[in-house]
Design a protein that fits this description.
The structure is a homodimer of 218-residue chains.
Chain A lengths: L7 H19 L4 E2 L1 H8 L3 H9 L5 E2 L3 E3 H11 L7 E5 L3 H9 L8 E7 L8 E2 L2 E5 L3 H7 L4 E4 L6 H10 L4 E4 L13 E4 L2 H23 L1
Chain A binds a DNA duplex (24 and 24 nucleotides) through helix 3 and strand 2.
DNA sequence: TAGATTGTTAATCGATTAACAATC
DNA sequence: TAGATTGTTAATCGATTAACAATC
């Protein structure tokens, strides 16, 4: 039964399923039950069946799920087959790292251009991606409507650049700056990468286990 | 009332509180009520009071919370005052970006060294952090016990390096590779940065809003 | 067919929200 | 003191898990 509104928890699990299914395909596993998939991922079989049933009926009773088919469905649900395009704005260390090491293609996203204000970079290419002058961004967007902007500019100009991108009609911003963008365009989706949140969480669980160790000694 | 075991949801919100409290302090706000803080963060006042009450009584009836004091408490809970040390393993683009742009200090963590196998880098410094030969890592750890390893090596060697680090007695690994580390040392905490999960989530919510738009047109 | 496993409904569990006495 | 706001208990809501008929 397809659900009207899918909960955030379910959606955040979809990319995890995708990774595991890719992994299974790489190992030539063609068929898997919710039981086995749950064991591999640390979920209950119930949860797995509930999650997928939000989007349709992808399995077969008595058999399980065909891995390649399920993988395709998950990819489709995540929008990976929609041919989304992206540009990267800010080719500093982080932008550089993403262009070189992050496979946009593997997420079904075509990286078409990069923008920076540094004259040494403008006109160059990076892994086949042309680098344009950030000042020409609005003109470029008028000719090349683009779905996603990867924001890797210095924090100081993040808010302004985000505003420009929103005005250019971008549908989503993948925000690597630690700045709260506060856009006035509610139709623009923002996904923040908060490195510090992640590191602080790690700090917490380390502290916690230290405390437990101490508690035992006492 | 202090709780025995704190739920993950609460812990994941602590860094968000920290960011907002830092922000408030930067704006010289000295006092805040759960009502106002909730309005600013999109939480209910109830949730905020519940969250903090897991760790103690930080407010005053009829007054609210003193921002600097609450900030210190949150920082303490997150382990930021424990003087954790970290090293960065792999000084490619991502490692480079983190050393240069991510403020480890702001998370209360002292970055003491970097490791790489590239002879051009070994012996150099980067933002005041010395770069050592990755092959000498175990010896170095014997002399300099370190809490956290930031793993930014190529995927191909991620698993091996993680094993080495675990054997060296690291307490936590902040994993930027897209590899499931599968450590045999259960006492080593791992926090994964899965860029693709985040981007795919963005792709989903963009697709979703596109679908809603279409549905309205029909 | 018999066994296995799904999709879905019902039960449980946990997290969020509301309410309110305590108290600054 | 009176008003405000906490900390906490109770109520609600939603998410996860269990159970099971349907069926491959």
């Amino acid at each position: 039964m397809k659900k009207e509104r899918i909960s955030n928890n379910v959606i955040r699990r979809l990319p995890m399923y995708l990774r595991k299914l890719d992994d299974l395909m790489a190992h030539s596993v063609d068929r898997i039950s919710s039981n086995e998939l749950g064991r591999l991922m640390g979920f209950t079989p119930s949860q797995i069946r509930q999650d997928f049933s939000c989007f349709g009926e992808f399995g077969q009773q008595g058999y399980g799920y065909r891995v390649p088919e399920l993988r395709e469905q998950v990819a489709r649900i995540l929008g990976m087959t929609q041919g989304f395009t992206a540009v990267i704005v800010g080719v500093g260390n982080m932008g550089h790292a993403l262009v070189k090491n992050f496979g946009f293609d593997a997420s079904g996203i075509k990286l078409t251009a990069a923008f920076d204000a540094n004259p040494d970079l403008i006109g160059k290419e990076m892994d086949g991606v042309p680098i344009f002058d950030a000042a020409t961004l609005p003109e470029w967007f008028a000719e090349n409507p683009t779905d996603i902007a990867v924001l890797t500019v210095p924090s100081s100009i993040a808010k302004n650049m985000a505003k420009t991108l929103a005005d250019c009609g971008v549908k989503g911003i993948w925000n690597f700056t630690n700045v709260d963008l506060e856009l006035e365009n509610p139709e623009v989706r923002v996904e923040n990468i908060h490195f510090s949140d992640s590191l602080l969480y790690l700090g917490y669980i380390i502290s916690e286990s230290e405390n437990e160790k101490k508690a035992k000694t006492r």
